[in-house]
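Quick one, T. Sequence first:
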Amino acid sequence: MNILLILTTVVPLLWLGYALVSKIVKPYIACLISLVITSLGAIFIWKMPNNVFLWSIIDGIIFSFCPILWTIFSALFTYRLICEVGAIEGIKRTLSIISKDLLVQALVVAFCFGSLLEGLAGFGTSVIVPSAILISLGFPLFQSALIPLISNTVPVVYAAVGVPIITLARVTSLPLKLLTRTIAVQLLPVTVIIPFLIKRELKIQGNLLIVLGSGIVFALSQTLVAWYIGPELPAILAPIATILFLFFYSKMRGKWGKLSLELEIKDVLSWIPYILIVVFILITRFSPSFTTALTNFPFSIIYPLDALEKTIKIDFIYTPGTLIMFSAVISGLVLKAKFSDFKRAFIGTISQMIPTVLIMVSMVVMSNIMGYSGMTKLLSNILIYTFGRFFPFISPFLGAIGTFLGGSDTTSNVLFGKLQVEAGRSIKVSEVWLASANATGATGGKLISLQNLTLAASGIGKSGEEGTLMKYIFPYCIFYLLVMGLTIFIGSML
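Structure tokens:
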């Protein structure tokens, strides 16, 4: 095997890992340099045809913006807008008036509301907002950071209304519905475990039925929504179902706080942006007439990329990003947002998105180049040669490495989704099963993602303490990935 081929395949990934961990350059600079190294290797060592190289770049840029970056932008804009009009305070108040039971508070704020934020916006809101609420409820500083970090695992595969799974389907050319269902099944065991990890971090006895019930209700709701609706709503509807379970169970035990009528009327409007998102997605996904209208010309275009032997389809209205933006604008008007509120939210989102744009575009283009040049297949062969039939066990660990490097489940799927498919073909294991394993394993990588650790440290006013948080959270990450590894390995033999 040509040593130059191996070097040009692994050096970009090794550089990316080193640069992100050592922080010698900013993450987007590290990604751009990695893209340059990959491009040079593809052109001069792998002899990639010029037209394939060019269209790999163009296809990567187009896909980066629609649907990935457009959805992330819309979700972040919605969150910033409700902050501008003060609606986020109404949401916080609604969540704060809960049981005096610390375990119930942690489950509602971090496990449930954190998941809701992840499903709707992602990008750290699911860590930093719950951390602030937990501090306001009187939780110790480091617990207020660690509990949202533990909770911000399973939901990240459904982040920003399903972007990671939609991306995985696109980069692997596997059926979206089948991937969504497989991912939901793989996540069942760890989803039930998460409330137990939260209880362990709280170091309290707690009520076993609350812990077990929360995990089961969340897991079953998430699975059913993924199975029958799709990747957009599991992280939104599952936490709502779990909050209802906690409400009624605590109510029966007489340990749920009293919610005044005044507060209910005043703060219910704060939830309108997120209610509308759910409504719009349900209408467009369950109404055949709407689906047909919104996925055909002029709301959708299809064009062939002969050089890449593929066909591209772009839905302008049906994509989650557009539906979220409609929800944001309508909600802003209902909440009486001023033009200045819209302007600040827009400018703030643009500013926050610039590094993300550079990272996402460079990673998607890099993945395209690696895939079409043959680098991904070579890397897959190296891993299969090393681990053989046990590759399914390390498959989720690979997904976690992708999240650790890139900061998101989406980036991990872009980096390693095709590799998992190649591995599945080589060892005769379901391609869908291993591609899904990358996405589910990537959720575990969120525990040690530098981006998440930085946000958690900032959220509790302890910037610079990322290393301390890493020390506490790392054992949870290893345990989580071991459970995932066993789940994937056992499933691969069935």
